Amino acid sequence: MGSEADFRARLSRIRAVLFDWDGVFNDGWKDQEGGSPFSEVGSMGVNMLRFGLWLQNKEQLPYAAVITGQHNAFAEKFTQREKLHGVYIGYIDKREAFDDFVQKHNLKGEEVAFFFDDAIDLAVADRCGLRILMWSAAGERFAQHAIARGSVDMATSLSGGQNGLREATDTLLTLMGRYGEAIDNRAAYSETYQRYLTQRQAAVPEVLKASR
After folding, report:
1. pLDDT tens column, 78-127
2. Is 203:79 a contact under the CB 8 Å cutoff?
């Protein structure tokens, strides 16, 4: 991992956020239908990060999507509710979903921040400008390997099941110098926040399922 100055420089170029699902929004355990839920704590963090990026990028809504290797109704529900731009479901090779996302939104890899937790995600992490790893005690050896191979810019101290996603989003907002601004505007339901929310709610989420 590089210096804080390098991290801030990378963060200043971010125009989009991508999320793995299992292990990021939750601890990775499945229910009997194969679903894994999300936390409202993490949900608020994602919204505040998107708002902070909107502020940073002169009121341009950041593109946002979930890429998951499994079919998960919770991921689809979150995408629809939070008005992400898309959810890629069942993509075992996540590079296919990543390529579609950046081409669709005319993005460069350096403009994408990616939140991930395991081996299946590394091929996407290697293409992104900012890579945030959800740390877990069980995955400590993986984290060490991912950091050593240069695929991580920041690792959380908490796992996805411990609201590590909120830790990550709050840290990014703080490094952007936008934490208090974002929280206070949301608390006041200010005109600025309402302009952001109008843009966010106008997004039309796509559900894209892998063909194999």
Report:
1. 999 999 999 999 999 999 999 999 999 999 999 999 999 999 999 999 99
2. no
For residue 103, report the phi and psi dihedrals to the nearest 5 degrees. -70, -40
Strand order in the sheet with 206-209: 154-155, 130-133, 112-116, 16-19, 63-68, 86-89, 206-209
Model confidence, pTM = 0.93
DSSP letters, 40-91, are HHHHHHHHHHHHHHHHHTTSPPPEEEEEESS--HHHHHHHHHHT-SEEEES-
CA distance 187 to 204: 26
Which of helix, strand or coil describes residue 72? coil
Exposure letters 135-167 (e unless 16+ CB within 10 A, then b): bbeebeebbeebeeeebbbbbbeebbbbbbbbb
AA letter at 56: Q
Task: Give the C-alpha separation, 87 to 97, whole Å.
Answer: 9
In the chain the domains, ranked by start, together with CATH numbers, are 4-203 (3.40.50.1000)
Q: Are 180 and 61 in contact (CB under 8 A)?
A: no
Q: What letter represents residue 195's amino acid?
A: R
Q: How far apart are CA 53 and CA 144, in angstroms?
A: 29
